[in-house]
Amino acid sequence: MPPGGGGAVFLGVDGKLLGSASSPIQIWKEKDCIEQSSTDIWHAVCAAVKHACSLANVAPENVVGLGFAATCSLVAVDADGSPVSVSWTGDARRNIIVWMDHRAVDQAERINARNSPVLQYCGGGVSPEMQAPKLLWVKENLQESWSMVCRWMDLSDWLAYRATGDDTRSLCTTVCKWTYLGHAHMEQWKESDSRDMEACGWDEVFWEEIGLGDLELGLRPGIPVGTSLIDAHAGGVGVMESVPDADSKADTSDESDEQAICHRMVLVCGTSTCHMAVSKNKLFIPGVWGPFWSAMVPEFWLTEGGQSATGALLDYIVENHVAAPLLANHAASQRISIYELLNKILFSMAHEQNISFISSLTQDIHVLPDFHGNRSPLADPKSKGIICGFTLDTSEKHLALLYLATIQGIAYGTRHIVEHCNAHGHKIDTLLACGGLAKNSLYIQEHADITGKENESVLLGAAVLGAVAAKKFPGVRDAMKALNAAGKVVYPSSDPRVKKYHDAKYQIFRSLYEQQLSHRSAMAQALQ
């Protein structure tokens, strides 16, 4: 579920899309505080489900299974399930701290300063986008709300709870956002590899040390039942087993299948981008979340990289340019999206200038896309965005160049994440893209050229959990293989000039952050 809307998708047991619908939801933004309403979201989900059911021509009694996926936002409710405010305003409707909210940067820094052993499973430190820092912020700043809350829940878990009344939490959410060690319950764990905290799942000392020892997590021990998924992880489940038709006829042995899935990384591209990769062995990667046991694909360790603003950054760049209103009018007159029009402008510019590849249009513009911090692999929420190469040009063509340079900056960030993961044990050679940005052919091609990896654009995930819950498949992997549809494969350019160009721009990209650190240090010293 994206921050701005609730949606529903109906699939047949063969994975065929029968109908889909969405409904808008409200969001409040005030500086670093970003909030939503669980009541509003539930009403939007209900409306979307009814509309999708109607479009699919499916009677309610014929729906055999239901699965929820949502952002990893934090929901606060009291003993009766009523909303409790997490807002400075005291507005009870605003009972959700949205995943991208950065109010808890200070709390995250103080938590990480303790160097608790459990933090190694978070890439070496928690992010302000995770739940522990947000909980500590509420306790320190909204004591009345803190005392009223009976249940703190990830949004996807709350949706399942609202639908069923069952408070069982998802292994996906608790492992990835709450520091729960899901591998504590795996059958093959070795006594010599385990510490006390790994034997019980929760590190009670960690929660005591950070000042949240009084927190009632509301979880029954020993039952990490997967009832829902974080939206990005649902995307991973939906496309991780997607392979081109030609590849699907290749070796299908269990050993080959396990090796193949470990060579893929899923890019869930929306407001932000999550980079999901799995492995049979746990890989500790500094600055990258995980390893998380069984948090996405059963019995595999999940590595979760990410960029906190991608689609949101492109929207910001385009909407705040002086040429945006005129461009929007032109797009509307042609009945295409503003991004389709920008792509057309870029290809036209390349033709007019008689250049061999479109990427070279941005040789003078460089973008560090850390406008909402760097989640991976630098794990620096204080990092800022940089645009190098501004002029006084305010034309539509200038906006198109800035748009392309921003796409490239995002893709260089993905390359940095992939290289970092491969340097620490992964063997990623294929990228699978899903989400709204995967529909943008230029966005996908730039990622293929810049990473040097084969990209497969998959526009439809699968309601895998609902199908498994309905006992249509014996397990999640079986449902993934049956329902994951093959997508369009995009290969890196074979032109060596393209690689040389992007290698040069990538080095500039990496240097922009180093320059920022130098500037940050110089100004800090000047203010001492």
From TrEMBL:
Q: Which domain of life is it from?
A: Eukaryota
MF annotations from Gene Ontology: D-ribulokinase activity
SUPFAM superfamilies noted in UniProt:
Actin-like ATPase domain
Domain Carbohydrate kinase FGGY C-terminal intervals: 266-470
**Domain Carbohydrate kinase FGGY N-terminal, residue spans:** 9-173
Give the GO terms filed under biological process for this record. Answer: pentose metabolic process
Entry protein name: Carbohydrate kinase FGGY C-terminal domain-containing protein
Q: Please give the InterPro entries that the UniProt record associates with this protein.
A: ATPase_NBD, Carb_kinase_FGGY, FGGY_C, FGGY_N, FGGY_RbtK-like
The record's comment on protein family reads: Belongs to the FGGY kinase family.
GO CC terms of this entry: cytoplasm
| Entry keywords, A to Z | Kinase, Transferase
